[in-house]
Amino acid sequence: MNADQLNWLKDNFENIEKAWEGDLWDRKRLGIQLTSYVDRLQCGAVLALDARWGEGKTWFVRHWAKHLNETQHNVIYLDAFANDYLDDPFLTIAAEISEAFKTSENIDDSEIESFNEKTASVLISLATILPAIAAKVALHWIGLGGAGEAIQEVYKDGKEVYDSVSDEITGKLKEHIEKKIENHQLEKQTIVDFKKELGELANKLNRPLVFIIDELDRCRPDFAIRLIERIKHFFDIPKIVFVLVMNKPQLLQSIKSFYGYDSEMDGDYLEKFVDFTIHLSNESDVYDFEEVIKYQLFRIGELKSLDDRNELFYWLLGLQLDKRLNGRELIKKLNKYALLRTRNPKKNLILLSLIMGQKPYANYHIFINSIVKKINGYLCTDKHHFMQRHNLRTWGSNSISDIEESEWFRLILEKELEITDTFIDKILSAYDSAKQSKDPEYQLISVLKDVSISDLDHSNNFIKDWQSYIDKGL
After folding, report:
1. 463: closest CA among 344, 341, 353?
2. N or C: which end of the chain has fewer CB within 10 A?
3. What angle do CA 277, 279, 283 make, to 5 degrees?
4. What's the half-sphere exposure (Cβ side, CA atoms, 13 Å) at 328?
């Protein structure tokens, strides 16, 4: 295998040199719009950035954060999943904001120290009696048969010790509850003072502070909900804008599974806390597919440069037009292809077809015929623009208008790529001839055997053998 095939670049978000570099989906436009929106806000806000897995949420917010830095904005990026081992996210949020204040020339150290002291006071007031109560209830739950036999034995061994200190625990718990009641008004004032000081410091910033919280849908549901609630209750301050990055349906499903909350019956729980949801568009512009495919094929060594084109490029374009995979799904498929590719370019067309997947088509003939129709339909749409975009030559005596829709794929391979042995046409012809032939097996196997992954004794084994090769290789 060629080493270039394994030259798989990884995203290096910690060291982005220039914002929006490699922007294949025109995300820069949304980033600039969001920046303008944030600058105009006269109050605090909680925004949700919603997109499915693999549609570039992290890429976008990382590059947007870089853009905000380059345009002298205040920005914080937090990976929520990396912090969900904590019980309460309040301290993490406050600590990140405190650190951001240090970079402002308008906020001095004494003010930050005062803010940190109030943060500590709020944290103390948030200390809950629930763990103590839960521990006591849990022991009784175990005693009532709510756990397995092994834990039952532990319970029996520990019950005597527990009973001997039960009165002491109850007394301390009662004392703690009474103290919480006595200090209730004081704790309320502590929170008021915290929000007031946070607001005063935020107001000294020249521009709003954008706090991006990523990977929220990967967190523990209880942590994710608590984080969102803490933001709304403690940090809803003018000039601080939170951006929650998530796959919203997935997060709502986690909430439903964990709490039994049903969005269909009870409404969208997150809308209680989110002011505005931005749906990261699922780009379907076919011209974007071209750029993405060129880049990915160059990345795995199938194209010599980003200006290069070959038969595999056009065939992958057709497959992508059919499958409409998002960027991450497409990369995964191409990585599989790069691992399993052969030395035979024609066989590689078959391999790529099956890795991309032929479902829901009944058989390979219907599948590739559908792909060819999609390529032709795409290539002949806006013909003049396509010719100009690809700097294609004039095709002899044929004018563009004379070219039939069904001919574009073959003509590009022959005239522009100088590929006269158009295998896709050949294999389609073999299937069509087989339908009319008294010996269809001969018609098919004479063509398929040249691109079979193993010795072919019957055409029915063609796809099975290839699939077996793919499954074993992975």
Report:
1. 353
2. C
3. 170
4. 12
Delimit the domains of the chain by residue range. 3-107+204-279, 124-195, 286-473
- Whether omega for the bond prior to residue 360 falls within 30 degrees of 0, making it cis, is yes
Model confidence at 321: pLDDT above 80: yes
Reported as a single tens digit per residue, the pLDDT across 209-263 is 999 999 998 898 889 988 999 999 999 999 999 999 998 888 888 777 777 766 5
Question: CA 455, 457, 459, 460 torsion: positive or negative?
Answer: negative
What angle do helix axes 286-299 and 327-340 make, rounded to 10 degrees?
A: 40
Q: Pick from 412, 446, 409, 421: which is nearest to 431 by CA?
A: 446
pLDDT of residue 418: 81
> Which helix (H) or strand (E) is 191 found in, with range?
helix 184-203
**Residue labelled with tokens 């853009």:** 67
Q: Tell me: the pLDDT tens digits for 102-124?
A: 999 999 999 999 999 888 888 87
- What does DSSP assign to residue 183? T
Bridge partners (DSSP) of residue 45 are: 241
The pLDDT of residue 410: 80
On whether the 3-107+204-279 domain is CATH 3.40.50.300, my answer is yes
Give 398-428 as a 3 state SS string: CCHHHCCHHHHHHHHHHHHCCCCCCHHHHHH
Q: Give yes or no for a contact between 205 and 239, defined as CB atoms under 8 angstroms apart.
A: yes
Helix%, strand%, coil% for the chain, nearest 5: 65, 5, 30
Give which of 422, 392, 427 is closest to 407, Cα–Cα. Answer: 422
Question: What separation in angstroms does the CA of 130 have from each of 113, 134, 135, 224, 469?
Answer: 30, 6, 8, 19, 56
Is 113 buried (19+), middle (13-18) or exposed (0-12) by CB count in 10 A?
exposed
pLDDT tens digits for range 395-434: 554 555 566 667 778 878 877 788 877 778 888 888 888 8
